[in-house]
Structure formats: C-alpha cells, structure tokens
Amino acid sequence: MDLTAEALAKTIDHTVLKAETKRSKILQLCEEALTYNFAAVCINPVHVAYAAELLKDSDVKVCCVVGFPLGANTSATKAYETKESVRGGAHEVDMVVNVGALRDENFELVRSDIEAVVSASGDAHTKVILETGLLTDDQKKKGCLLSKEVGADFVKTSTGFGPMGATPYDVRLMRETVGKDMGVKAAGGIRNFKDAIKMIDAGADRLGTSAGVAIVEDFRWAQYSDSWMQEDRPCWDCPSRQANLAKQPKEVYVWYKERCLVCPDRSENVFND
Amino acid sequence: MSDSPLPYIESKILRVSLTDQMITTESIPEDLYRKYLGGRGLGVKILYDALSPGVDALSPENLLVFAIGPLTAMPVPTAGRLAVVTKSPLTGTIFDSNVGGYIGAQLRRAGYAAIIFEGSAPTPVYLWINDDKVELRDASKVWGKDVYETTDRLLEETDPKAQVACIGPAGENKVKLAAIMTDKHRAAGRGGVGAVMGSKNLKAVVAKGTGSVGVDDKDRLTEAVKRARRLIKKNAVTNKSLPIYGTSVLVNVTNEFGMLPTHNFQEGTFNDAVGVSGEKLIERLLVGRYNCYGCPIGCGRVSRVGDQEIGGPEYETIWAFGPQCGINDLEWITLANHECNLLGLDTISVGSTIGCAMELYQKGKIEAPMKFGSTEGLLDLIRDMAHARDLGGELGEGSRTFAEKNGAPELAMHVKGLEIPAYDPRGAQGHALGYSTSNRGGCHLRSYLIGPEILGSPVRVDRDNPKGKADLVILYQNLSAVMDAMILCRFTNFAWTVDDYAEFLSAGTGLSINGRELLEIGERIYNLERIFNNREGLTAKDDQLPPRFFSPLPEGNSRERVVELDTMLAEYYSLRGWDKEGKPSKDRIKKLKIDV
What we know:
By secondary structure, chain A is of the alpha/beta class. Chain A has 12 helices and 8 strands. Chain A folds into 2 domains: 5-228, Alpha-Beta Barrel (TIM Barrel), CATH 3.20.20; 231-273, no CATH class. Chain A has helices at 5-9, 23-36, 48-55, 75-88, 99-103, 107-121, 137-149, 168-178, 193-202, 212-218, 239-242, 250-261, and strands spanning 12-15, 40-43, 61-66, 92-96, 125-129, 154-156, 183-187, 206-209. Chain A has an 8-stranded parallel β-barrel with strand order 1-2-3-4-5-6-7-8, surrounded by 7 helices. In chain A, strand 5 (125-129), helix 7 and strand 6 form a beta-alpha-beta unit. Chain A is globular. By secondary structure, chain B is α+β, with helices and mostly antiparallel strands. Chain B folds into 3 domains: 12-208, Aldehyde Ferredoxin Oxidoreductase,  A, domain 1; 245-412, Orthogonal Bundle (Aldehyde Ferredoxin Oxidoreductase Protein, subunit A, domain 2), CATH 1.10.569.10; 425-591, Aldehyde Ferredoxin Oxidoreductase Protein, subunit A, domain 3 (Orthogonal Bundle), CATH 1.10.599. Helix content of chain B is 39%, strand content 14%. Chain B has 23 helices and 17 strands. The model of chain B has no long low-confidence stretch (mean pLDDT 97). Classes of the chains: A alpha/beta, B alpha+beta. The A-B interface holds A 191-195, 213-214, 217-218, 220-221, 223-228, 230, 232-233, 236, 271-273 and B 231, 234-235, 257-258, 452, 456, 458-465, 467-469, 471-472, 475, 497-499, 515-516, 519, 557.
C-alpha cells in the first residue's frame, strides 16, 4: 500500500459538531490535530476563535460549518455566519446547500445561496454539503455542477446529521461530476481506516470524521495483513442499503430502494448484520 | 542491578521441588528470554524441555509454572498479570491460563520471573514468598477450605499486604475443571490448572515483594505510557463499553448477531437475553467495579445478591450459567458464579458441561432430570462437581468425557476437550478457525476475531467470508502469544497495535524490538506449543469442531450458515508452514530458531 499514515492524516478534517461540545473537547480536538497533523479541525462557529488561537502558527486549518445542519437558513444568514467565522479565524467554510430548493429544482436559488457564501468567504475555501441522503443521483449531480459554477472549492457528501453518511458510490458520482480540479469531501459514518481508504479510492481528497485518531492509529494494523482490506459485500457500502423511510422523503427512499431491483449484485443482499 | 546485558528483565527463577521440599534459584539464559520473553512463552519452553511425552498431567512428573513477564510491575497499563503454564489434565495439551489481580506484580517485586513447581508434596503445603525469603509452609489448616477463607487465613498468617493465588476444594480433588484463584475472584480458570496444583498438594502461593522495578529508558517509557493511556481513553470499547458494562456488554451484541449460544449451541438467540445483559446487571446487581493491577479500563464487576458481595459475573459466566443452560435468572447466575469462585472452578467449562448434560437429558441419554431453564439443584450439583462426588464427579471430568460416556460425544461443544466459550462459531468464520486451531482447545482468546468480525475493531471484515481469515487468525494468534509472554491484558489491543507493545518492550527493558520481530516471537511460541501437542500425539484431526457447527442454526441473524472449516484450515496450515497433519515443517522450525 502506497498510502502513508502521514498522508492519510493530511486528508482528515478532525471533526466535532455535537451540541454538547465543551471547550475542553475543542482543546483536545486541536491538540490531536496538531499531534497527527490533520488537515483541519471541523467545528461549529461558536468555537472558531478559540480553535484559531490554539492552532495559530500551525498548518492545521480551522474549518467551520455554516447553515448547519439543515441548510435551511436564508442566504443572508449563511453569508453573515461565513463572514463572522472567517473573521474569527476560519480558513475553510463547510456550508449546507439549500436542500429543499435543490429538490424543488429552484436552481437559481441554490446557485445564489452558494454564491453568497463563496463571496462572503474571501480567501477561505468553501465546501458545499449536499446531504446526499436527501437527494437522488440527478439532484446530487446538479448540486455538484452548481457548486462548481459559482467557484466553490469542494463538494461534500453529508453533514453526519442527515439520513445517511458518505458512501463510496456517492463520492465516485461526485468526483465524476466535478472532475479532477475540484475537491470532494466525504463525511459521515467514516469510522475506521478501511472506510477512509475506500473513500479515497472512490475519489475523495478530504475526509470529515470524528474518528481521525483511530483511523490513523489503527492504520498501522494494515502493514501486518492484507486481509483487512478484503472486499466487502457490495451492499455494505451501497446507499440503497442505508435508505430509511423514517428519515428520508418518500420518493427519495423509493428511488434508492428501487435501484436494488435492477442491481446486478442483488443476490448478495440476503444477510442480516 | 544485575550484570545481565538486559538488566531490566528479571531473570531469576525459583525452582520448588515439592517432593523433597527443596527450593533453589536459577537464572534464565539470555537467549531464552530473547526468544520467548516470559509468561506464556517462558512457561511453554520450560514445559517442552522438561516433560517427557505422555506424562500424566496429574502426576508428580508434570510441572506447574507460574511466570510473569518482562514488563510486569513496570508502569505499563495492565502489566500485573500472571501466566500459569502446565500440561492440562482436561485437554492433554500444553496449556497456559493467565490471570489478572495483583499477584504478578508482587512476584516481580520479590525478584522472580517464574516459579517452577515439580513433584508433589507429601502433605498439603503453600509457598510463602516474602521478598527473598521463600519457604514452604504447612497448609493443613486451610486444606478443604474455600478460596475466600483460604485467602483470608493465609493473609492473616503471613502479611495482609501479600497476595494469594490458591485453589479451592475443586483443585484439591483434582477436578479437571478446577481453577487457580487470585484476589478471591480472579481466575486462571481454564484447562484444569487448579487440578494440577491440587495434584501437587500445593494449596497456595502467597507473595509479597517490596523491591523496586527499574526501567531502561524512563523518559521513553513515560512517553509510551502517556500515549497508550490516551489511546485507551479514545477507544469506545476500552473507555466506554468495558468500564461501564464490563464484558457482559457482549450479551446483547452476540444475541443480536444470532450467535449467543443457547441450549448447548442448539440456538443462537436467547429470548431473555436482555434480562441477563450487562445493562440489566447495572440496573439490578452492580455495586462496584474492579481494576486489576495497573489497569485503566476496569472491566471487573462487583455485584450484590442479598447480603453477599460477589466478584463478577463476566460475559462468559453469564452465558455459561445463563443462555447455555436456558436460565434467565441473573441473581442465580451471579450466585452460581460465586459458588465457583469459592470452590475454585472454571465457570465457562462448568456451565458448558451442565448445558451439555441438559441436552443429554433432553435427548434421553441420561436419566438425571437436568432440564434446560431450571436452576433446581444446580448449586448443589456445582458443589458436587468440586468435591468429585456422584453425578458432579462425572461432570467434573468435562463435557467431552461425560458426553462420550453417555453415548453422545457429538453433544459436547469442545475443541481438544476444552469447552468452547460464548460465541457460536457459525456466526463468525474467522473466530471458528481460531477455535479449531487453538493449541489449548476451544478458546476465544487465542485469536479474538470477534473484534473485526463482530465489533468492527479495528475494521469490520465480513464475518461470513472465509477468505482471508487464516491470515488474520495467524496474526491474532501470534500477537496473543506474545502479549501473554509480556504479559498484558488482551483488552488493550482494542486500543493499541503491535507497534505499541514493541515500544513498551524496547523502552522498558532495553530489548530493542519492532512490531514484526515481536510477532515472530509470538509465532515461535505458537509453533513450540504445536510441536509439544504433536509430541503428545495430537494431529489435524484435533483441529476439528463439533459436528453441530456444520449444520445451520434454525433462526436468528446467524441462521443458514455453517462453518467452512476445511477451506480455511488448508489455507491456515499452508500459511503457517505446517503439513497436512498440522505439524510445523522443518523449514519453519529452523526459520523460527526453535530448538527441538
């Protein structure tokens, strides 16, 4: 395997976005980010200034979420939140797209919403979270293209609070859509080095995860056996398997599940884990 | 400090000839601890060199070795364990059983790497180690006493700050399921090591050590320990599941996966699993937690039933007296655990053997009314097992012998005579291979593939796919062997990798070593154990599983699966460099520098 632990660490946005996060947790997060030389810490706006202070003079970036986690704020609010965060020291802004507008095919609103954040971010990089679990493939592609059109730096799969996390399938789709010159960030449900490598292989160049330490530490196991990376059953990584009627719009759920009916790997979908 | 090239590795051994009451000291040659480290590795080497093939495990010719490891009593988390190594009367194989508590650290501080017990005392004795004063003392006053009373009385007689490892009535009666107990409720439980101790008329080892233990590179070790503690705090298993629930957190997990063995492995789900789960234990019985020496995890439980404070129960015990026997009474399970602690019995094998008897009754093979789900008379039966009397005497021989005697050997859930613990192998192919190839028989700890296959640690691998499992089983077996040689708690490898253990060893002892070299020591130990077993006549046919595991479970989330053993086993032997009979090749023996 060519990937080194250091290179793997440099793909990781070390993340804590939970409501209950205390200042001590941000301190720990930043210390770990420095220890492992992660790409960034990904945090809520309220913690930006503190993290920026802790990480000054390092090359670990401060990444802040905006319009998080629903994406349902007005564009002006997102823009203001972005400015505030950048002023506080954020180098990167992960905004949630207006998911409802994307599903309404109100593409002008989606475009202007993203544009507002890109403009407000100044020199900071912008990543556009699509929340793929709420979208069909056509909607994901459209979200990617709109993000690219208005100059966002990355597209990102999920918030981690939505109906499903990142899957290699979605990462591959997004990479194919945006091409090689734009970033793709996989986030949500990336818990170990195998998950991480699958995402990288699918085309991700950044990973959002709260398990960054475990991913890098446990990656050392990889040198002792190739069997860790043995191929999983295709359904394990498929977004259709994660589809959940309680969490998704009915038509999106049905769209995902109907894919199973024509899937060439359908016969594999017989297990209960 | 000694003039050894590695002065921070303790090399002094006590040799106790029980027959003639002689105690001598000797040194481990440097080459030996470089190749086998200590603990399990050292014990296996001593046994291999000293025993003639075919020695009766309960005869004076067998040896009983207590060994600590090169890191013992250093400030390394969990470095206080003790390995007991002998030839097992239950399996006829080489056998090591390791135990937590605090006695390992006392032995190290007293200045000993190991104690070799040989022969048999004419009357009951115990060994009292008080730093460099070592003596055999009369144990007649505590012979026949239970583990708790024995411990209390010997501490009164010696020093309240000492630690005791002792047998109960089960060991005295040479019951093949007898354990050696430390700190009253921690057990070197498996394989009948307590029976070997009883056969030597050795009731206890009491140890107190006050010496200091130096380390080679204090700063480097401090850094390694700091890092290791941080990793334990970051890991969900070692920081949350185990401290909060203890090992019994697994009851609901394995039940959900359909691999909680129920009614002697006839089913893989237990209807009342929630009622005997770790979560329920907290709600109803738990009064405290127990940490072994130097352990930041604290998986041990202290429970209360009535006015009785009880050490345990752990997952395996809950399973053995619970789902395995169809029993859903958590209070009773805890009392049965306590009874085994008092008597010095292995809860896994006792519960499993009772479950086997219950199925024999269910199938009309025995007349004794042992019904699944009924606790009636079982505590008395357990006492009878410890005293080798009546039906209990027959059960105390273990499930293999009992089932064979009653005409249904296929109903004993064992490998090499050792009862298989609490994970149905049909639900995890790699774990199944681990059971079958374990040198000490049906053991879950030789290669705990439940980690990757069920818990997703360090990564999730497909539990149903036999592909690649031989490779992982070998990795885990080699790592486990070397961890048992060092000797550190198995749970640490949820948080640490091979390289962390190598760093401890390098920093603590000055034995410069990397992860691959460490695994090679593990491989050497594993192969020597295999060579020992081959010498005893074991072959590939002993790497088999009970026929039940080649028929599918009727329901639950592991249904419609069987163990695909033949495929995995062939690959395993090939990767190990063993022939079709499961014997290490000459090339492999030479490569591993094993002297045979």
